[in-house]
């Protein structure tokens, strides 16, 4: 497992960034950097299941480990969805089950700084290093436009 960290400064209040990050409409927009049409099915409450899915219904099964609005979100990845079936017990899944993806949002002199740190299998490192900067740029743009409209 490798720990990756990505960060961006966003010229918007933390509450705007947080809502933009998690609300369905804008979530779908910024996460299109990972896969066009991806979406989340969750209530974002601690202990809740979170499904991160592609348009074909395949994806990740996670658990919301911790959620402090406008400040911190921790997801624990526990499985995959394949052909509409959740798998949390196969050998393939158990290799990386328990991997974390954490979102930390700080205020830095009037703008927000979002930092993502995540565990990933070594074979996925390059993919995430390519995709996360694009996703964060999209989230930054959406958040700053939303803030300007306030």
Task: Explain what this protein looks like in three dimensions.
Helix 1 (14-22) packs across helix 2, helix 1 (14-22) packs across helix 4 (125-148) and helix 2 packs across helix 4. The longest helix has 24 residues, at 125-148. The protein is of the alpha+beta class and 150 residues long. A hairpin with a 5-residue loop joins strand 3 and strand 4 (59-68). The protein has one domain: Alpha-D-Glucose-1,6-Bisphosphate, Chain A, domain 4 (2-Layer Sandwich). The chain contains 4 helices and 8 strands, in the order βααβββββαββα. It is globular, with a radius of gyration of 15 Å. The mean pLDDT is 95. Strands 1, 2, 3, 4, 5, 6, 7 and 8 form an 8-stranded antiparallel beta sheet that branches. The protein has helices at 14-22, 24-30, 91-94, 125-148, and strands spanning 2-10, 39-41, 49-53, 59-68, 72-82, 85-87, 99-108, 111-120.
* β-sheet strand percentage: 35-45%
What's the helical proportion of residues? 25-40%
User: How far apart are the first and last residues' alpha carbons, in Å?
Assistant: 41 Å
Poorly predicted runs are none
Globally, the shape reads globular
By CATH's scheme, which homologous superfamily applies?
START domain
CATH architecture: 2-Layer Sandwich
Please outline the helices and strands.
Layout: E1 2-10, H1 14-22, H2 24-30, E2 39-41, E3 49-53, E4 59-68, E5 72-82, E6 85-87, H3 91-94, E7 99-108, E8 111-120, H4 125-148
Antiparallel strand pairs: 1-8, 2-3, 3-4, 4-5, 5-6, 5-7, 7-8
Summarize the structure.
This protein is α+β, with helices and mostly antiparallel strands and about 150 residues long. The protein has one domain (about 1-150): Alpha-D-Glucose-1,6-Bisphosphate, Chain A, domain 4 (2-Layer Sandwich).
